[in-house]
Amino acid sequence: MYVFVEDLRGEGVERVLDRVSGYGVSGITVGAVHHASRDVTPHGLSRLTIRHDGAHFTPPPELFDGLRLAPVPGYADAFDGLREACAKRSMKLHGWTVFLRNATLGTEHPDVTVRDCFGDRGSLTDLCPAHPDVRDYAVALARAVARLGVDSVVAESLHFRPLKPQRSFVPLGPMDAYLFALCFCDYCMRRATDLGVNAEVAREECARIVGGVFDGDPPAQGEVTRAALTAYAGPDVVAYARARSETVTTLVSEVASAVADEGSKLVFIDSTGAVKGYTDGLPTPGLAAHDAWQLGVDLVALGDLVPAFGVLAYARDAARVADDVGAYLRSVGKDREVRAVLRPGHPDSDSVDRLVAKARGAKAAGALAVDFYAYGLVPHPVLDRIPAALSL
Ligand SMILES: [Zn+2]
User: Fold this and answer.
1) pTM for this entry
2) Ligand 1 mean position, distance from CA 198 (Å)
3) pLDDT at position 165, please?
4) What is the pLDDT of residues 8-18, one digit of tens each?
5) pLDDT over 90 for what percent of the chain?
6) Cα 166 to ligand 1 centre (Å)
7) How close is the Cα of 115 to the center of ligand 1, in Å?
8) Class of the CATH-defined domain 2-114+123-163+244-390
9) Quick one: how many helices (H) and strands (E) in the chain?
10) 322 C-alpha vs ligand 1 centroid, how far in Å?
11) 115, 132, 178, 255: which has the fewest C-beta neighbours closer than 10 Å?
12) Ligand 1: centre distance to CA 275 (Å)
């Protein structure tokens, strides 16, 4: 079960762990580093919880050199005693870590954030995985979380991210939004160039197409696929987009090695399932494993480097959950650990039967485990559905 530090602080570690273990849950994945957010928390100490993008522990200063993360005031000791409290109940403890989504670091250091095809840095939340300082930071952060003594480091946002403007009255199609989200910072362009891609042509094409829509051209129709993107933006753009996976694969490889060095293991979560189904549990048609390349995630390559994967199965339909898990396993390799992350309530699950059907579908498709997202976001009666889903 995913648990926020604010949940533990609000209700108390002992009470939360007793409740969670009472559901039959065998481990908790606690937010060691989260992103800023403002969330409805139905049974929290505060019913509206403000989260900050900082560390919920004190990062060892000797690990960081350049970018460094400060502890969130009041939460520097959130992991103290947690391992022991879990062990007492035979529960595992995992460190949930948001890597490259961090508005605090991005605002302090805009030069390490993504730069769009027009040369603008408008997404200060998004640190670029190609920037050497960001790569050093990710490795240091992974080590720091592993040193908390966690059974695994669960990596979120360790890849490129989609564009999320808060307002847009321009009807950008999915492909326009995708082109607008591509990073053309010096490091991304250099890496693509080293792989034989004409990065400058790709950038010009993106700026021409997106700029055209801004000037009144009709937006692109249809979902992003390699074929549609080739037809819409040309081969240089597609080659550029595909080159991003080398940036991500090498970074994840370094992070996975650092975590293993520290005696823990990496669980990699790509956000594709959330991009598709987060809002309403009705994911767009392509399976997450097939569309992960869009964020620079090459699951076939990562399957050789990372021991475990979390699939964000944010969907109402049990068959869809099973299809997503199956496609993931075919990509990363049948012998890899694949966990299905389910939302036990709104907007994915409207009944205990639906949750049970999804857990059953995930297991039948080969998932080693199901995880539930997330303790503090879900009302108690919804959490009460979990035992049935675990007693299959
Ligand atoms: Zn970049």
Assistant:
1) 0.97
2) 15
3) 85
4) 999 999 999 99
5) 98
6) 21
7) 6
8) alpha beta
9) 17, 12
10) 34
11) 132
12) 20
